[in-house]
Design a protein that fits this description.
The structure is a single chain. The chain has one domain: Rossmann fold (3-Layer(aba) Sandwich). Helices cover 31% and strands 25% of the residues. It contains seven helices and twelve strands. The strands form three sheets. The chain has a six-stranded mixed sheet with strand order 8-9-10-5-11-12, sandwiched between helices. A hairpin with a 2-residue loop joins strand 6 and strand 7. The protein is globular and about 50 Å long.
């Protein structure tokens, strides 16, 4: 497991210039503007945000406020149209698509609302995939250990269609944490689950976060869930609301 307090120096042969040993994420005047038939649509409007290593941060705001777009940019899945995005000391704006894919594989875990499991693969195979792509010889052993950690050691050979929604999200959690990422991004991870099942999944998520020392950025509409993080930021119309304007999560 990587020490979350130690900056990444090298990823897959690429030298990484560490700009800040303290910050896991640094957004400086981040902008995202997309074209439309009616004219440019301003999704993100000059966001400034710093997330320290090992911190748990929730991001809240109404639908359309830019929460998921911000997460996609931090993950290197969407390109900003302005500003700077530094994750783990690496300026994502300087990386090629292949470089971003390698960086994402080695540094970032992502959990979505819709699970995104491969339907033709078993639970074990779904978790092993990113480990195999990273060239780990122990991919299946590590995958099995992670599924055991989320209580699914008896479901290794089951396909997603044979699992409940809660079980599928636990597989997704195991897959996200298996490569021991420095950063976990979770976008409404309980959005498709009932209250009791969602609560169990979230308990697992925070247990895994603590045991791995992973930085967590959690997008949620649930004030109670947001409050479990050490800090909350509010997005409104593509801008981060000043703390003095917020009444809390």
């Amino acid at each position: 497991m990587r020490n979350p307090g130690v900056p990444l120096k090298q990823l897959c042969g690429e030298t990484v210039t560490t700009t800040d040993n303290h910050a896991m994420i640094r957004l400086d005047r981040l902008e995202l503007t997309l074209p439309s038939a009616a004219g440019p649509v301003h999704i993100l409007r000059g966001l400034d945000l710093e997330v320290t290593r090992g911190e748990t941060l929730s991001v809240v705001g109404p639908s359309g406020s830019g929460k998921s777009s911000m997460m996609m940019i931090v993950a290197g899945l969407e390109q900003a149209t302005g500003g700077t995005v530094v994750v783990g000391g690496a300026d994502l704006g300087t990386k090629t698509e292949d470089g971003l894919a390698r960086f994402r594989r080695d540094t970032i875990g992502i959990v979505f609302q819709d699970f995104h499991l491969i339907p033709t693969m078993t639970a074990l195979e779904n978790v092993a995939v990113p480990l195999e792509l990273a060239g780990r010889a122990d991919a299946f052993e590590r995958a099995q250990a992670c599924l055991d950690q989320v209580g699914l050691d008896h479901r290794l050979t089951h396909y997603p269609g044979q699992l409940s929604g809660g079980e599928q999200q636990r597989v997704a959690l195991a897959r996200a944490f298996a490569p021991e990422p420095d950063l976990l991004l979770a976008d409404e991870p309980t959005g498709n689950l009932d209250g009791a099942t969602g609560g169990h999944v979230i308990d697992l998520l925070f247990d895994l976060q603590r045991s791995h020392g992973t930085t967590l950025v959690l997008i949620t509409h649930d004030p109670g869930l947001a409050a479990r993080c050490a800090r909350t930021v509010h997005l409104i119309d593509g801008r981060i609301l000043d703390p003095d304007e917020s009444a809390g999560p």
